[in-house]
Amino acid sequence: MTYIVASLLAGLLVAVFYCFQRTWSKTASARQFGCQPPVSYRHLDLLFGLDLKLQEVRQALKFRSIPFNAALFKKYGKTFQVNVFGSATIRTIDSENLQTAYATNNKDWGYEPIRLPFMEPFCGRGFITTDGATWKASRALLRPTFSKANISDLSAFQRSVDSFLQQIPRDGSTVDMQPLIASLFLQTAIKFLLGDSLDVLGGEGQSGDAKDFLKAFHNSMIGMGLSFMIGPFQLLIPKALKATAWQKAHTFIDACIDVALHDKNQARGKDFPDNQMESDSRSHSLLEGLAKQTDDRIAIRNQILQGMMAAQDTTSVLISNTMFLLSRNPATYERLRKEALSIDLDVSLPLFDNLKELKFLSNVLKESLRMYPIFPVLVRVALKDTTLPVGGSEKRDFPIYIPRGTKLYSDYYALHHVESVFRPDVEVFNPDRWHSISPGPWEYMPFSGGPRACVRQHKALAEASYTLVKIVQLFKGLESRDEKEWAGQMKLTARNANGCKVALIPA
């Protein structure tokens, strides 16, 4: 018994010494760089910060966590510190800090320590889960597929949109556009990722195997999300529950990879004119593009799964949110329709360039992304001891010392509602504000920023523009059929928990 007590006391002393040494080291380093600590959230639970976490959970259940967290910046300023399960997290919307973390000192910050432990069993090492040389290699594999020539070709997407438009009621009845749009972009995302190999296995998501894959993929996403939420307690989730979904998803993707590699090997044995080879490489799926660069099945599978995560909701959420806003602003819809009718999407070429000429449409999308960012929050982690330039002390004019492992919470929703940048009427949908404002790249970040900005942003904007133009050309009116306000439901992206219930009036 005496031995046990002595061992416990020794362990306690070691822990106390470690905490003291760490605090002393942090203080000494902060002084060396002329740093001051930031303002801290006033916690009731000083040890673990559970009071704030419980408030966030309660707000999330009411789909109010996004504005709740944004309001904290009005109370504590553009940069402050919170306690998350006993560890300090810096929250910031200060443009100088964002530029430092995402660009100037980008190599000091990353995602791997906070993403890879939870995500590696399902989607391995890829452009979402890694940093440094591994991330660069992954990004290089993706680059050909997201070239301008490839994303500018909307021919296959046009056919999918035509089919989608046939599903919209023409009798003025209420329809929730959110699931219809989500279905459209789920199918196009899968086609873009898997291409012809999917057709061999049974069509665009219609075969039994493809449906099983989608279910397994979503279950895997839920499992990873739950693991993120409960952190160190993820071991309480039986591994078998997650592994079953992982295995089903892997089996389906592996079969697609086999088809792509088989087609590549067959093509190697044939002679093609140079101009045909160039044409073939211009427009292809992500899987085909990866198969042309590597035979590593695991590497290809990881990129496909992570591509699916990045592609599944981005454009559909943007269009749903924009239609939600337009339905409550009929005068804006009428102006947008007048502009859209000025071009003929069926004959105007090149289509991608013509869409960019629609200036009012561009402002509508900018304003939609300002009001409801697709990615409201992004969290990075310090890969080494570093600093942020502003936010220290009560006056917030000193740099902040950041020990390795500190998390940085960037709130894009709060960033896009800064009145000094976007004018006092930040809660009002007003595309015309973009005629008189010019936010900097670190004041408006709809697709994040720096080297790790969203690789799909140009494709997402092109597809959203085309879809909206086709809708407003076909329907002369868009009426809101839901009095509920926008309520952010957080997943990888944030979508309206109340959907997009509208009525469309045919021209």
Automatic annotation (TrEMBL):
SUPFAM superfamilies: Cytochrome P450. Heme binds at C454. Keywords: Heme, Iron, Metal-binding, Monooxygenase, Oxidoreductase. The keyword Magnesium does not apply. Transmembrane segments: none annotated. CDD domains: CYP52. GO terms for molecular function: heme binding; iron ion binding; monooxygenase activity; oxidoreductase activity, acting on paired donors, with incorporation or reduction of molecular oxygen. Gene3D superfamilies: Cytochrome P450. Its cofactor is heme. Belongs to the cytochrome P450 family. This is Cytochrome P450 monooxygenase.
